[in-house]
Amino acid sequence: MSGDEREQRHEEIDAILERKPGVREIRDEANRYTVLGAADRRTYANWLTPIEDHFVCHRNPIPEVDDGDSWTVSLTGLNDRNGMDGANGAGETVTDTTLSMAAIREEHPTVAIAHTMECAGNGRGQHDPETSSVQWDCEAVATSIWTGTPLRSVLRAHGIEKRADEGRWLTAIGGDSIDEEVFARSIPLSKALADCILAYGMNGGALPAEHGYPVRLVVPGWYGVNNVKWVDELRVSEAMVTEGSLDRPGTHAEWQQTSYRIHPEGVEPEPNETIDEFDTWEQLASDAISHPYTFDATVMSLIGAPDGTVETDPGSGATVEVLGIAWAGDDAIERVEVSTDGGENWGDAETFGPDYAGAGRLFAYEWRAEPGTHTLCSRATDDQGYTQPAAISDPGEWDGAPEKGLFPWNEGGYGANAYLPNAIEVTVVAPE
Ligand SMILES: Nc1nc2c(c(=O)[nH]1)N[C@H]1C(S)=C(S)[C@@H](COP(=O)(O)O)O[C@H]1N2
Ligand SMILES: [Mo]
Q1: Considering its fold, how many domains does the chain have in total?
Q2: Could you say which ligand is closest to the alpha carbon of residue 218?
Q3: Has residue 203 been placed in a domain?
Q4: Tell me: the pLDDT tens digits for 274-294?
Q5: 89, part of any domain
Q6: 235, 233, 228, 253: which is closest to 243 by C-alpha?
Q7: Structural domain contains residue 97
Q8: pTM here?
Q9: Residues with CB under 6 A from ligand 1
Q10: Do 142 and 49 form a contact (C-beta atoms < 8 A)?
Q11: Mean pLDDT, all residues of the chain
């Protein structure tokens, strides 16, 4: 990493701060990422996150795109329909085609989907002792409406069929790939065909440069890292990306096989060509995969309001509405509880508002607030029965951490969903 590139990163951060008043720079131990997070906890009293408050996270410089209409996406790899694209006429054929932005926009259905996107490193800064990299507290999560084209439609048009999805993978490669460092992520082809889109719009407007203009992959309910920005290539294969598996220079599998996996200190996770359990928490809890991959987001919740000081209104019987958002990747939220005494006692909150697969739910809790200072926290349970643990474990406590109500401290600081670190202090004052 040259000094020049670091310089460029700070310029990039400054430029983003100018157009996004709702974010602030986050401390990055490695000084390698462009990282900004929601500046105000009250962002999470909303279901939709305004673009100004939407976190940003990437490593390589944003590609310069003067004319988004001339951007292309190459689609390569296996298909199982004869006579398509680069057909060789003998059984399985290979796709090798180039998609224009016009084709992506106009030759397929247009859809809008909701997606709560969380960086897999959200909560990393709550690990004690500290892990390396970006010290996120809880500001790297956002809910947006993404407009684009279903991948299913694009893939089918080029011979990639549902019946051939078993065990196959789709690798997306970012246009921010530089010679030494290729940003590539693989997701199961079954997920790609089910609900992923090539997005070119965000919250009803154009996709901003820092969020992937002109086109990004949106993987509903899955951690940010899977949502490749500035998509340059899509490739279908029998295996996830492994080191050297792409016909490109530089390293290929860092983002899939090394970082973004949950493991104890001092462990180097073994690469896998394929796995068949994708739920992140299930991988952890069942030991199905050693050193889980961060695919779907673990169950989480955040209180957005009140925060700080609140004056009770005698007309309301001194009740205060506690508002927040809960999400569980591509699983559904089953229950949200709120505590106003730091996790000793809990009451059920009510979920309300939009209810889309892959996006969070708003919750509200009627709090009879007594004057004084109180510690508020929330904990959610998903429809698989997983509940947010109370705290992050010590580094040595990997084994059985979830059963002990702890999220395992892990070297990369991924997937943290404990509720106590996200507690907020609220001071209640009676009206004069
Ligand atoms: N091409 C590319 N896509 C990327 C990244 C990147 O570095 N390059 N960062 C990923 C990570 S780690 C996250 S958390 C999300 C953040 O998306 P956002 O910046 O739109 O919030 O983008 C993902 N997509
Ligand atoms: Mo991330």
Answers
A1: 1
A2: 1
A3: no
A4: 999 999 989 988 777 889 999
A5: no
A6: 253
A7: no
A8: 0.95
A9: 54-59, 119, 174, 176, 183, 210-211, 224-225, 227-230
A10: yes
A11: 92
